[in-house]
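User: We ran a pulldown and think these components assemble together. Before we commit to crystallization trials, I'd like a predicted model of the whole complex to look at. Sequences follow.
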Amino acid sequence: MVYMPITDDDRRKMLKITGIRDIERLLSGIPEDLRLDRELDIEALSEMELLREIDSLAAKNTSELVCFAGGGVYDHFIPAAVGTIISRPEFLTAYTPYQPEVAQGTLQVIYEFQTHICRLTGMDVANASMYDGASAAAEAAVLACRVTRRNRVVVSEAISPLYREVIKTYLSGLDVKLVSVPATDGLSDPDRIARSVDDTAACVILGQPNFFGLLEELEPVAELIHKVSGKMIVAIDPIAQAILKTPAELGADIVVGEGQSLGIPMAFGGPLLGFFAARKELVRSMPGRIVARTTDNDGRTGFVLTLQTREQHIRREKATSNICTNHALCATAAAVYMTLMGKTGLRRAALLSAERARQTARQVFELDGFEPYFPGEYVREFAVRTPLPAEEIVLSMVERGVLPGIDAGRWYDGMDDCLIMAATEKRTAEDVARLVDGLKELSQNHALP
Amino acid sequence: MTSSGIANRQETEQESSTMDEGTLIYEKSVVGRRGYTLPETGGTETEILSGIPENLRRDAAANLPEVTEGEAMRHFIGLSVKNHHIDKGFYPLGSCTMKYNPRLNEAAASHPSFTGHHPLAPDTTAQGALRLMYTLSGYLSEISGLPSVSLQPVAGAQGELAGLMIMRTYHKAKGAACTRIIIPDSAHGTNPASVRSVGFTPLQIKSNEQGVVAPEAVEAVMDDQVAGMMLTNPNTLGIFETHVAEIARIVHSRGGLMYLDGANLNANMGIFRPGDVGFDIMHFNLHKTFSTPHGGGGPGGGALGVRAELDRFLPTPVLEEDSHGELFFNYRRPDSIGRMHSFYGNFSNMVRAYAYIRTLGGRGLRRASETAVLNANYLKELIRKDYDLPYEGHCMHEFVISGSRQKKLGVKTLDISKRLLDFGIHPPTNYFPLIVPEALMIEPTETESKETLDHFAAVMKQIAREAREDSEKVTSAPHETPVGRLDEVGAARGLDVCYRD
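Assistant: Here's a predicted model for the assembly, 950 residues in total across the polymer chains.
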């Protein structure tokens, strides 16, 4: 049988040594009446048949859509070497590095990943990864409630609605009130936030850039929440961060985000990469694994998982989080990506994305009926007011091979005419032309009586 | 080559390997080196940045490393070879199910039509991906006997979280004010941590002398305050919870729900279906039972199965099929616990799990579980004389031994674990479950050969002998690994978790 080296002959010998006549006897611990009395109804396929089936399933996807969609997941270029490294069985098929003597590869990569994230965000400490940006934001809110012993979480409605939904789910059992503060012109409004922030507020959560791609003024909000000794949580886009002032400088206590842009394919939304960074005084309250540099009994440098007494396998019900398996291989991909791109490359990817976004915006806004939805400044993602429902535009454009963006009306009432578009360094002038021609044709057809 | 030449070469190799011990990519960085090529920007940096308010612009680039691709490759390859991994050697970690990760799964998951698909593209453009998910959900239902499956949770612990939230929402909908969850003392650490994370209180009960939960123990604590019970079956001692049907009856009779921690599903496939014997909710670990690679700690997959009455509580969105056979995500589920993940879960791992299940088929899955059980019993028989065996009788896919006998000789279970590393074997899960002193929890899985099991047993025998005759060899282990025992206390005190120049 495939993948199983035990032959019939092995089986006979092994049963004999265990002193058991047959496999059925071996299963005698399971009461007879609890056993399944039939075979599972799943047909087996050979390797080539399976690949053929995968091919035919994949063919049902509309592939190679020119992607102007973002919302947390972006179509960035991934250098070939990233795939080479993370396909190495040494990284791919290793377990969690609980035995550091034989896991220095994974441990050092994670230590370097933590360092990259700290340098990108300006924070003091980062963990080994979370599931995705949304769960990282939710865990940040839980942390803030725990350390402040408060039970109100204030989020801006301008952060990703997907994050907000996950935060709501994570807080649902914890007797915590989640307050969503409406945005003004697509931006978090410090005056409105001020009305929700008092000494019962554990934290405020803002996005930078926010879901509409707009740049937020973080400092006034950080001042508000710090005045009542709450925590400032910022959810960032790691590519945009390469050209934006660090959240640490702007008052963040915790920085989280979606790391998919850092060398991880979109893959229909998973696996993604959550990152979690904080000021050093919060390190003992952080969720998830953390790697530290230390020495071995011969004085050689080595790496270990540290502060494990925060974690579920040691602390059980008193753990800071229930997270166990994280997204280590995605963190490895991000570490390789950030190493290859390095100091200048990550900045170049951000500048190129910003430039392509501006070129796209300029051309889209030249079309009749398309205009900026909000007046604010953006990096590589922007909201467009559309002359016909954004949902219709998306459905018609995918038939032309272009995914023009995401339809904000899915999450925001009254914004059915809002399309959020993003660009990366991968978008070419031809891609933009294809998008613009399609939009033009659609709006012209629409304008006809 | 002269003998002195050989000596010289060895010395150089030793030096260079010492030189590279723990050297960070940052220490190899040289200003001006580049590991990427990207097109030039059209405008100048100043022009592009002019769109960003001055007070929000970054003054200096993040100080990431500067190396060429070749240097990066040497760095990461150099690191990689310091790892133990399943393609290199035996990995008998109990409750972790370190089975072989078929490369066919990788080929399937890397199909560009899957990897290149944006998650917010309309459902109409993702019919292939959705069909695969829909079919996989059906397979997991067939394997578990639970009719409704959500693939959204991305890890076992997140599956637990979702499952417990379903319990809470279910009781709330009935107007019941439940606050407690029964958990046996043999449970995984995630169980009590998850219970706390949803605002419940864990209520721990003892396993009996046979290593299982007695119905009386459940009866004694079961009341209207109890929302349900979490159970692992077979449990972490590798013993089937014989009284599971009776326990389920007791829990159900007081309105509670039964949750199965699916970590040990590898013993059950085609033999025992949780849904048939009273479990209402369970999570699957795609990265254990269904062979998706562990990746040095993830990503995994923590799909959730529930019985039909609990379907309405599943995380949104829920994948459904319309009357034309088109698949779509349904977001309008008013009773749902809400969203657990940004999108739909770890899709790539769903492809891998699908490929695995489809390759084995119904018969192969049963054979896998049977063989896992056979391997564990055979191995237990081979080493039982040299170590203490706290529970007699046949085990399922894993078993626990105790190093108590060796501890009396001054050799701790930790030392035995470290000594195993010298033989290229990853130690079993140690000091767990908590109810066995000096525990070693051993799960060989079905993808190991008789020869590997024989070799492991011989090594365990040798270590037991060393503990008697030459204990220092064990207590000072490992001797053959890239680094020796690490200063964990110093690590926690110094807390160097981020490199600073």
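The longest strand of chain B covers residues 226-232. That may be worth checking against your pulldown data before setting up trials.

User: Thanks, that helps.
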